[in-house]
Design brief:
Strand content: 25-35%
Radius of gyration: 12 Å
Number of strands: 7
Shape: globular
Largest sheet: 4 strands, mixed
Distance between the termini: 19 Å
Length: about 70
């Protein structure tokens, strides 16, 4: 779960069966996400934060600490 500067939260669903494991994060780390956002009453969910295994363009990624994970 990511705490946003606005006070809200965002659950990031990253599939390590498809994409490489992300190095452990620490409080205060900057994280940039590209994926699909789904709103819910708890704040929201980001998923498809990795390449599409079927080869479709437009897959997602996570960028943090100078590394790009997809």
């Amino acid at each position: 779960m990511i705490r946003l500067e606005t006070g809200g939260t965002l659950l990031a669903d990253y599939n390590i069966d498809i994409a490489p494991r992300i190095a452990p994060l620490e409080v205060g780390d900057s994280v940039v996400l590209r994926g699909r956002y789904v709103w819910n009453e708890q704040g929201g969910l980001m998923h498809w934060l990795h390449h599409d295994p079927s080869g479709m363009p437009g897959g997602g990624w996570v960028r943090t600490r100078g590394n790009l994970y997809q």
